[in-house]
Structures are given as structure tokens and as C-alpha cells.
């Protein structure tokens, strides 16, 4: 039987043959194992404790990171929206800029066209000024000729008035009406209600024959005259038919005297003369007063100018060659 030596774990062990060994005792070995296990458990605990703290810190850090990440994502989303809005604004600004460039180009084209139009208009105005100058000169010439006719008519009328007034010695009984006609009062030529020329009217009518004969003998005057009308007028006293007949008879009586006296001085110009009676239809004053009725009882002498003579003046103006109408290249029509 083997006896074992109890003691330190590092004591020698004797074998059956009496030899000593170096194997530790079982108790020592178990103690060492227990110590190792304790140490390992302590190490594991410490490790777990450290790991747990690290895990908690890591989880807290992860949570903070997640919150930060969420904030960052929100910020990023907001930034992305702002970027999109900015991009939309940029796109709109780009479109507006392109439209503004097109509009500017169009305005530049329009401005160039307007400059050209202004230049063309300035040139046209110069041409029109030349045209108007030439046309004005011709219009003045035409106006001068028309004035010549008007002055001629007024001249013979004034001669008749002055000559008859001088013969009668009373300028109030012969006048020029607003229509440019010579007006002879009834009392010069006729008694009331009569169509027979009074003997006292002979000197005035003879003077009228002399003036007309001298005027018509001048071809320069006669070419403008179409007719010389002797018209009779009455007041409204009596019937309309009676007044019409009386006014016509008086006009014919004056015409007959002019054609039959002074040796037929007006025979060659008989075609110019005619007579007409208007009765009470053309009053020059009110028939409600004696003075008005006296003014309405009258003989008028009218010198009618020839329309074709006036037209010759107009046609002569139309025949004048004027500069081309500015802007058409065609000869202008006056």
C-alpha cells in the first residue's frame, strides 16, 4: 500500500519503489483549478461589465446618432426641397431670361424698322413739301383767276349801281343785295300795281343799256357771262297768282325797254338777257310792315357767270403737270 505525503502542492511524492515524484497533490490541483476558474469568472465578469458599459454607451451613442441622422435627413430633405425650388426658380428665371432676350431682339428689330420708317418719312415729308409748294403756287394762280372773275362781276355791278344812282340823283333807290344782285326799287320804274315803265325811269334804264353794252362789247368780259337775269318781285298784298303775273310782267317790261331803246345797242347781246317773275316768294324783308313791303317790291339784275368758263379755269389747273405724288411714284391729281 502506497502512502501519500500531504503538504504543499509542490512537495515531492514518493512512489512504491521509494522514489520521490513531482506531481502535485489532487487538492492542490483542484485549488489551482478553482483559482483559475475564479480568475476566469472574475475576468469574464469584468469583461462583461466593461462590455456592458461599452454596449450601453454604444447604444446611447447609436440612439444619438440615429437622432442626429434623422435630423440630418430632415435637414437634407429640406435642403433638397430648397434645391428643387431653387432649381425651379432658376429654370423660370432662365425661361424669363430667354423670353427677355427674344423680346429685346424683337424690340431691336422694331427699333431698326422704326428708324428706317422715320428716315423714309423724313424723305417723304421733304417730297411732300416740294409737292405742296408746287401745288400751292398753282392753287394761287387758280385763285387769282377766280378772283379776277369775281372782281369782274362785282365791278360791273358797282358800275351799274353808281351810274344809275348818278342819273337818278338818289343812291338809296339802287343798291347791291347780299346775293350780289343790283336791286332797283319799284318806285323807280313802276307805279303801284302797274307793269308799265314810268317815263321818269327812262334816264336810269338808258344808262343801264349803256353800261351793259360797254361791258359786253369787251370779249374779255363777255366770255365769263352766261346770262343777265331781270327778275321781278312783289310783296304779299293780293293773291299769289296776281303777284306772280305782276312780277313777271314788270320783269318783261324792263327787258323789252332794254332791247328796244338806245338804237338797239343791246341787239347783239340779246342772247344774254332773260326775265323771270317770282311774285311774293322771295322776300328780303318782312311783309308785316310798310317798309318791309316796300323793300320786297323790287327789280333785281343778276349777272350769272358761265359754268364752263369756271370749269375751263379748273380744267386748266387740272392739266398742269405737278410733281409726282410723294410715296406713290405717280403723277399727282390736283
Compact overview of the structure:
This protein is of the alpha+beta class and 334 residues long. 62% of the residues lie in helices and 10% in strands.
Outline the structure in words.
The chain has 7 helices and 7 strands. By secondary structure, the protein is an alpha+beta fold. The chain has a domain at 150-318: OmpA-like domain (60s Ribosomal Protein L30, Chain: A, 2-Layer Sandwich), CATH 3.30.1330.60. Strand 1 and strand 2 (20-21) form a beta hairpin. It is rod-shaped.
> What is the averaged pLDDT score?
81
Q: How would the global form be characterised?
A: rod-shaped
- CATH 4th-level superfamily of the domain at 150-318: OmpA-like domain
CATH topology tier name of the domain at 150-318: 60s Ribosomal Protein L30, Chain: A
Give the biggest sheet.
5 strands, mixed
Number of helices: 7
Supply Rg: 69 Å
Write the layout of secondary structure elements.
Blueprint: E1 13-14, E2 20-21, H1 26-168, E3 174-176, E4 182-185, H2 186-189, H3 202-217, H4 219-222, E5 225-233, H5 240-260, E6 273-277, H6 290-296, E7 298-305, H7 307-318
Parallel strand pairs: 5-6
Antiparallel strand pairs: 1-2, 3-4, 4-7, 5-7
Helix pairs in contact: 1-3, 1-7, 3-5
List keywords for this structure.
334 residues, alpha+beta, 60s Ribosomal Protein L30, Chain: A, five-stranded mixed beta sheet, two-stranded antiparallel ribbon, 7 strands, rod-shaped
